[in-house]
């Protein structure tokens, strides 16, 4: 006989119905199933990321000094001390690396003229100066849109009004160039107070309509006014800081660095307003939470008006510098296309972020000023980029990282929810909430045992049980029956007598004292052995479906 045949020891004793040999399943080492089941069936990917920056050791028992932006409470570098469980030592890590990127970017911009190709030097210097001016305007505008949450489209109206006002003062009253930015700041203050009054009562879409109407009103007034150059297309002839006897390259270089200084001043203003009390108050009362802010004692309306007025002063200062830089101003500064380009800069970079305003301005200025040879196609490209950002990105270019992390966490959750096994039958979320950890190992062992028992279920085993439900069985069938008998009382199958020696029915035990078993099926079995086999088939079905 082959090794896969089971010899019945009762046959030698002439027991009635005992067969000499019964075919059995080939022996399979349980260690095989154990090893295979313990392996995770979920594809595992490398976790974590490489560190491209230095992790310096901790400070020990002493405190280290934290440098802050004066006069704000923001630290220059957000450094956090932490414990490394792998190296068993204290370490310092930089939480927010944006100041490093700011320093590198501004330093590269400052050294830009040294590496510009000679053929495009004048074009790039002019584009860099224009970029600095518009970036400074957008930083002040970002304070209004992002920090204050006021949907104002009159930022270029304030800049244009200040530029026209100081140009007229310089031409008619001989105001020197170094006073033009300060005179523009005064004009911006007046305009800011006037425009801020409706912001107390209006909000959202209605205030945006009001400010865009104000922008158009300024354009129409200057366009029809003889005093502001209706016949010449603008007001020109203001005093400038650029010496006229210098060479073209020296003039462009001076203008480049002068505009860069204005950009630095706008960045400082943004940090002071957004990082101090006004910015913190408005961050406590974001949109749609004004009632909560008022209940906690935050006067957010007053804070919004203050931010609007301060930003208008900054816009007026930039308008005065604008007139000193270009020796005047044209009507195009009030144009709707200028407002849309400025809005595109903010949307592409990301509203609510200073770096978004600067990088968005760099992208639009590069396409609009450097790639001017492409003609109207460059405007189509700007519109396509803006449309793509609006459709696919939530927070502009600088919101990609947070959006990617959110998408990655969502996919992780989806994979965890679809995963039903990883060495056991308990999901990771369920395992962390289970207090009795012995239950985890019991479920894992039970799963391995079921995986092994599934391999023993064959037609020969089923036929063997049908012929002889009770008595001695082959080794594979005995393993199955022992597992079924060890099942807990809850929902455990049993047979009940409908009529003695004539009718039997399968029921399921409740597992609770005093609660009657429930009837599983309406089928009536004629004999006890048939009922036992029916119970066996139900247990086999549950095992294969588990």
From TrEMBL:
Membrane topology: Multi-pass membrane protein
Molecular function terms, GO-annotated: branched-chain amino acid transmembrane transporter activity
Keywords: Cell membrane, Membrane, Transmembrane, Transmembrane helix
Location in or out of the cell: Cell membrane
Ranges where the N,N-dimethylformamidase alpha subunit domain occurs: 441-544
Organism field: Hansschlegelia plantiphila
Chain segments annotated as transmembrane: 99-120, 126-146, 153-171, 177-197, 204-222, 254-273, 305-323, 379-400
GO cellular component, one term: plasma membrane
Protein name (record): N,N-dimethylformamidase alpha subunit domain-containing protein
Domain of life the protein comes from: Bacteria
């Amino acid at each position: 006989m082959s090794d896969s045949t089971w010899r019945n020891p009762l046959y030698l004793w002439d027991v009635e119905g005992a067969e000499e040999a019964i075919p059995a399943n080939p022996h399979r080492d349980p260690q095989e199933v154990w090893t295979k089941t313990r392996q995770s069936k979920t594809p595992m990917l490398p976790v974590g990321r490489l560190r491209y920056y230095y992790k310096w050791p901790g400070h020990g028992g002493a405190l280290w000094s934290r440098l802050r932006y004066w006069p704000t409470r923001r630290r220059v570098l957000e450094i956090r001390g932490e414990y490394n469980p792998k190296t068993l030592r204290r370490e310092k890590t930089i939480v927010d690396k944006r100041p490093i990127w700011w320093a590198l970017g501004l330093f590269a911009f400052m050294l830009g003229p040294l590496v510009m190709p000679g053929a495009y030097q004048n074009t790039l210097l002019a584009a860099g100066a224009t970029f600095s001016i518009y970036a400074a305007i957008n930083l002040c505008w970002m304070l209004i849109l992002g920090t204050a949450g006021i949907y104002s489209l009159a930022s270029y109206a304030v800049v244009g009004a200040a530029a026209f006002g100081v140009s007229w003062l310089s031409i008619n009253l001989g105001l020197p160039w170094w006073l033009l930015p300060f005179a523009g700041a005064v004009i911006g203050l007046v305009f800011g107070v006037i425009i801020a009054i409706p912001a107390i009562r209006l909000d959202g879409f209605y205030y945006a309509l009001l400010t865009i109407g104000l922008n158009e009103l300024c354009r129409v007034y200057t366009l029809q006014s003889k005093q502001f150059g209706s016949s010449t297309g603008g007001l020109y002839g203001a005093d400038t800081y650029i010496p006229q006897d210098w060479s073209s390259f020296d003039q462009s270089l001076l203008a480049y660095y002068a505009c860069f200084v204005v950009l630095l001043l706008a960045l400082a203003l943004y940090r002071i307003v957004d990082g101090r009390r006004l910015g913190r108050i408005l961050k406590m009362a974001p949109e749609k939470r004004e009632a909560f802010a008022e209940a906690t004692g935050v006067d957010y309306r007053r804070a919004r008006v203050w931010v609007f007025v301060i930003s208008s002063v900054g816009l007026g200062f930039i308008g005065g510098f604008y007139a000193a830089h270009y020796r005047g101003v044209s009507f195009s500064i009030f144009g709707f296309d200028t407002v849309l380009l400025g809005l595109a800069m903010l949307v592409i970079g990301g509203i609510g972020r200073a770096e978004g305003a600067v990088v968005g301005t760099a992208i639009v200025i590069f396409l609009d000023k450097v790639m001017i040879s492409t003609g109207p196609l460059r405007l189509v490209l700007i519109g396509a980029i803006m449309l793509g950002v609006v459709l696919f990105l939530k927070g502009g270019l600088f919101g990609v990282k947070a959006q990617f992390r959110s998408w990655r966490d969502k996919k992780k959750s989806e994979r965890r929810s679809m995963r039903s096994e990883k060495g056991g039958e308990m999901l990771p979320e369920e395992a962390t909430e289970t207090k009795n950890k012995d239950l985890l190992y019991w479920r894992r062992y039970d799963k391995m045992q079921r995986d092994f028992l599934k391999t023993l279920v064959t037609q020969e085993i089923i036929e063997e049980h049908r012929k002889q439900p009770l008595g001695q069985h082959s080794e594979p069938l005995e393993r199955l029956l022992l597992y079924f008998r060890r099942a807990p009382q809850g929902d455990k199958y049993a047979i009940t007598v409908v009529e003695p020696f004539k009718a039997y029915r399968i029921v399921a035990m409740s597992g609770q004292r005093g609660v009657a078993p429930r009837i599983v099926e309406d089928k009536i079995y004629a004999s006890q052995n048939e009922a036992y086999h029916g119970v066996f088939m139900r247990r086999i079905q549950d095992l294969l479906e588990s």
